[in-house]
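P.,

For your records, the input lines for the assembly:
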Amino acid sequence: MPTTETTRSTSRSVGAVLWDWLTTVDHKKIGILYGATALVFFVLGGVEAMLIRWQLSRPEAAFIDPDLYNQLFTMHGVTMVFLVGMPIAVAFFNYLIPLQIGARDVAFPRLNAFSYWVFLFGGIFMYTSVFAGIAPDGGWFGYANLSLREYSPGPNMDFYALGLQILGIGSIAGGVNFITTIINLRAPGMKFMRMPLFTWMAFVTSFIIITALPVLAVALFMLTFDRFWDTHFFNVMAGGDPVLWQHLFWLFGHPEVYILILPAFGIASEVIPTFSRKPLFGYAIMVFSGVLIGFISWGVWGHHMFTTGMGPIADAFFTISTMIIAIPTGVKVFNWLATMWGGAIRFTTAMLFAVAMVALFTIGGISGMMHAASPADLQQHDTYFVVAHFHYVLIGGLLMGVFAGFYYWYPKVSGRFMSEKLGKWHFWTFFIGFNAVFFPMHWVGLFGMPRRIYTYAEELNLGALNLFMSAMSLFMVVGTMFFIWNLVRSWRKGEPAVANPWGGSTLEWSTTSPPPDFNFAELPVVRSRNPLWDNPEDYDERVHTEPAGGVHMPNPSFWPLITAFGSAITLILFMTHIWWMPLVGLAITAVATINWAFEPAG
Amino acid sequence: MKVHVYEKAFLSIGGGMLLVFLGALAFATLGAGIHLPDRAGSIDPQAVRTTPPFDDPGVREIAPGKYEVVMVAQAWSFDPAEVRIPAGSEVTFRITSPDVIHGIHVEHTTINVMVVPGQISEMRYTFREPREHLIICHEYCGIGHHYMYGKVIVE
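Structure tokens returned:
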């Protein structure tokens, strides 16, 4: 039946609830699944980070053995980038894009479910290696030729090559889905230049995803072929070139950085105007600078390779392109400041995180400029200075933005507020802990501590600073605990929220909290950039109960789950090195895909 | 499209700073003589130990006050692990790897270059003060990565 239920019934059996979530194609539920799964991986990645800090707390320590240590730092990087950073951004994309553009779902609801299940099974696949003690151990960028079979004979790097491959498939499918949704499903009157900035940044990010991830896919295929079938793409002994891997990886890897940070820019661009009671300053420039960042992100990868020996001409080119990308990024920072300037600012937890994001990202951006200058980079390359830099960008930028997003949209998702009191505790412990851990890391790096090092000599005199950083990292753990407790507790016990609790200006605040399955009983008509501020009378009187004739919604489907499951099984069987084994997994995928194709979509 | 006057101001300041940075960069590279790493030649990684000059790694005086250090970075050591040179000498490092990618970072100097098998990496630096510098492998190269270090002793 094309109609769907509108109320959250409490009397359904556990089995029915489970079946509902396993077969859901609702973008809101998939968004929640993405967010919850990413948070689980966030905790796992955090535990890895704490073990790393424990090992580094003393010089010449041996709390854990070097083999495990190498697996921990590799998996920490892989987890935080591929299993936390991207999925948590996609969680927001999923939940918010249809609501912000006034649509009832994404363009391809079942493909959306497939993306999620691929992400889940890909993540489980990677983590089986961790619990079996054979996790990838070649660093998150897996430089060839160390990652080839000759130097990494175990199954460790196979998990890396195959796991990232399958995670990439899910991301690319998601990118296609969001682009199609944004182009085709906008509500009447929602012109491109009226779209909320978050949706704009999601749009740009999706384009980077569908163009950058295939580059990684190609590199991973080459690595897989080298490892399984003795091809010689990166094998220098047979005439291959290990530097080719570096170019391919960073050609993907630098756009990836913008895949991670643009969603946080989008979130800040929603939170700051709402809590300043002012429209976003310089909307057009904010949009175009985002687009420009998307384009230039393709021309800067070489700044990861200044020490590789590309020569002065290439170094000069990448220095210039990297410095140019700072201009559109800097404009954004100034426009957020100008948005706050003279506004009626309310420092809610969401606003605190958004403002912290602007400040901390700026610090990370400035140290980024220091790397961009190739002669300066020679003293910083692969030291802890770089580690400090990208944690300022990814925690200070991405994660602070994501926290702001959680506090800001939680009332919309659950119908209840997160506790402001716990939120302030979360903010201050995390903020202080983060800066105390990562600011001294700049010095440690400049004093000569290389990254990815199991332990360091006492003569380097880095023991005291390292001990301090390790101790302060406990603050971040406490902050995260406040956050998770706040999320769980507020789901049932938070203060109830109305449809537009913060006085936001975008369409998601015009429907009920939480929104009905069909989002809007009647599709909204948009007449301006900030519809709820400029034309509140259009939305005030709306009721979002199901209209008499029902709303035509897509049917739930079990096949995306099975298709994704088959793909993961294929990979696991591939690891047996028996050529026909993967065919079993492929058969599952094929059956599921055919059933998917012939199933009525609703 | 309306571009606000503040935005114009910021864009000009940003662009202007970029030009200043680039000027400083040009000065550092051309005027102050900072040597950017470059590919100085190719070598068969399987024959490193039989190809001159890598068949005999070590320190050589090539002209008064000018030294050449021929070095092999391998899993997981530098050969030679200790380099002694007099203060004030200009030293050219020529280095390669017979196995995986390594890095050489000489602490408190601008020497930081990746050592790629099949490629000879070259760096030049003038050591002015007498002191000890630690040589560290900066490119993760496997389980013994943290053992891989050496020393430059400036006398």
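Two observations worth noting. The radius of gyration of chain A is 24 Å. Residues 555-602 of chain A form one domain.

Regards
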